[in-house]
Structure formats: structure tokens, C-alpha cells
Amino acid sequence: xxxxxxxxxxxxxxxxxxxxxxxxxxxxxxxxxxxxxxxxxxxxxxxxxxxxxxxxxxxxxxxxxxxxxxxxxxxxxxxxxxxxxxxxxxxxxxxxxxxxxxxxxxxxxxxxxxxxxxxxxxxxxxxxxxxxxxxxxxxxxxxxxxxxxxxxxxxxxxxxxxxxxxxxxx
Length: 170
Prior knowledge:
Blueprint: H1 3-22, H2 41-50, H3 54-60, E1 63-65, H4 82-101, H5 105-108, E2 111-116, E3 119-125, H6 126-151
């Protein structure tokens, strides 16, 4: 299997799990957070909705500096309705799929750099960055989001196994 095919299939699997979690996010709790050091619920939900679009920069650019003007597009979506989160997820998925369909295996083997203020935080082949910094990172934040759902009395979807609210595997 080609890397692009693998990543497209992974994107579909992750999209379904993210959609299940985002469909349950309370609409009136964007500023809520479980601890002063935690990120607000609205920001976290926005992050989960838009993270698939990170694939685009990893395919189309050679690096991203979070302190650069180009990084302003990664500002979290300010949303009020759950439908806005789901639309953001759908848009991110369209962009990510297009980028993956239009790249090559050889290109995914080339280096990509993540910088903050000109300092290299990480540099790895694009396929490694996509696997770790998008898919693994997305699973981490989606897991956080399910904890936020539980603490806000929202039902938690069965994602990788049964949940207390859904005794089935998704």
C-alpha cells in the first residue's frame, strides 16, 4: 500500500471519530475548562475540527514557523454552533484529501520543519510529521475532548472501544 493511500484511509477513520465527538460538544460552554491550566472547550473543539488541514502545509510547504505571518491561518475557529465545527471539519478534510491525492511517495519522504520564531522544534520526513503531528496529535486532543464532554454531562462516543454511554465499538 502506498503512503498516500494509507493516509487517506487513516484520514477517513479519524474523521469519523472526530465527527462523533464534535457532534456532542455543548454549544454554550466555549469558555469552560476543567482547570486553570487547561485550554477552553471551544478552542479544543476547534482544534479537533481543523487539525486535518495541517496535512496541507506538510505537503505543500517545506516548513511552518508559528511566529510567521503564514501561521495566522492556524488561528482557532471562533464558533457558536456545532454546525460550524462540523463544517470546519468537512473543509479541513477536503483540503487534506486534495493535498494527499496530489502528492507523491517521494515527496512524502522529504524533510519538513516545524519552527517557532526561527528555532527548529522538529524536523522529520513529511510522512513522519503527518503520522505524529497530525494523526497522533489529533487522537490525543480528541481524547481530551471526550473528557471535557464527560465533565459537561454530554455523552461520550464509543471511539476505540465501548464508552459508558455507548456499549458498542464505533
